[in-house]
Design a protein that fits this description.
Elements lengths: L1 E5 L6 H14 L4 E5 L6 H4 L4 H4 L9 H8 L19 H5 L1 E3 L2 E5 L13 H15 L4 E5 L9 H6 L2 E6 L3 H16 L5 E8 L2 H10 L4 E7 L2 H9 L3 H4 L1 H18 L1
Parallel strand pairs: 1-5, 1-6, 2-4, 2-5, 6-7, 7-8
Antiparallel strand pairs: 3-4
Length: 258
C-alpha cells in the first residue's frame, strides 16, 4: 500500500503517519516512511532522539549525491542533466532504520523554488515516484499542505490519499483545495481523517464541510499527544487511545483497498 498524507500545517499529519507506520511494522510488514514536509519532524514523532535526528540529513541537502546522479550541480536551472537518475539504492544507503521501518527525509532545496525545473527537484520527484510506483514495501509519505510536487504518474499510483482535517474552516478549505488538485492529477479517491475531535459536533461539522469526500475515521483530542511531544517520545508509546483509533483507520484502509 502506498499512502500520501496531507493537510493544513499543525493538523496532525505527522502523528497519523508515524502511528500508521508503527502499526504496519508491528505486523511484520516492511515500511518506508517518507518525511516530505520541509518542516521535517517525522523523526521526532517516531521518538528518535535529538542526537540521532541530527544524523539524518535530508536528501535535498546532499548536493554531491544529486550532482553525481543527475550530472548537474544543484541550484542550476536549464542546461542538460539526467531526467531519470538512479534512486533505487537511496532507502538502503541513506535511510534511518529502526524496527521494520526505514525513515527517509527528503527536505527541499533552499535554492530551488518548488516548481523549478532543476536537478534537485527532478531528483526528488524521481525518488518519490520510485518509492510509490516501484517498491513493494508499505510506503507512507508525510507531505506538506499541497500536492503540486507530485507528478501525475506518481499521484495516480497512490493507493490512499488522506487529508487530515481539524475542526475549523481553514482546515476544510485546505482539504477542498487538495481535492481539486488531486482531481487534476488523476487521483481517484481522496479520503478524510478528522483529528483533535472533542465531541460529535466536531465530527458533524467536518462531515458537512467535506462534501462528497470519503470520511474514514477520527482521532480524539488527547493531551497524551502533546505530552509525547514534550517528552520527545513517540505517541505510539504514549497514547494508547490514539493508537486504537488509528488502528481502526488502518483497518478501514485495508478494507477499501484489499
Amino acid at each position: 500500500m502506498k499512502i500520501a498524507i496531507t493537510g493544513k500545517g499543525g493538523v496532525g499529519k505527522t502523528t497519523l503517519a508515524s502511528i500508521l507506520s508503527h502499526l504496519f511494522a508491528a505486523e511484520g510488514k516492511r515500511v518506508i516512511a517518507v518525511d516530505a514536509d520541509p518542516d521535517a519532524n517525522l523523526a521526532s514523532a517516531f521518538g528518535i532522539s535529538i542526537d540521532e535526528t541530527a544524523k539524518i540529513k535530508p536528501i535535498a541537502e546532499m548536493t554531491w549525491l544529486i550532482e553525481e546522479r543527475t550530472g548537474a550541480k544543484p541550484g542550476s536551472s536549464g542546461g542538460i542533466f539526467k531526467l531519470n537518475p538512479r534512486v533505487d539504492d537511496i532507502p538502503s544507503e541513506f535511510g534511518y532504520r529502526f524496527d521494520n521501518i526505514i525513515l527517509l527525509v527528503t527536505g527541499r532545496s533552499k535554492e530551488a523554488a518548488s516548481g523549478c525545473y532543476c536537478p534537485e527537484n527532478v531528483f526528488l520527484r524521481r525518488l518519490l515516484k520510485h518509492l510509490i510506483t516501484e517498491r513493494n514495501e508499505i510506503v507512507i509519505v508525510d507531505m506538506e499542505a499541497g500536492i503540486e510536487h507530485l507528478t501525475r504518474g506518481t499521484a495516480e499510483a497512490v493507493d490512499a490519499f488522506i487529508v487530515v482535517i481539524e475542526p475549523g474552516k481553514r482546515s476544510i478549505q485546505t482539504a477542498n483545495t487538495v481535492k481539486e488538485m488531486a482531481k487534476g492529477l488523476g487521483v481517484k479517491r481522496v479520503l478524510v481523517v478528522a483529528n483533535k475531535i472533542r465531541d460529535k459536533k466536531d465530527i458533524d461539522f467536518i462531515k458537512t464541510g467535506i462534501g462528497d469526500m470519503e470520511f474514514i475515521g477520527y482521532i480524539s483530542f488527547d493531551d497524551n499527544i502533546m505530552e509525547a511531544d514534550i517528552k520527545g517520545v513517540s505517541p505510539y508509546n504514549n497514547s494508547p487511545e490514539t493508537v486504537n483509533e488509528i488502528k481502526k483507520i488502518k483497518d478501514m484502509l485495508e478494507e477499501i483497498f484489499f
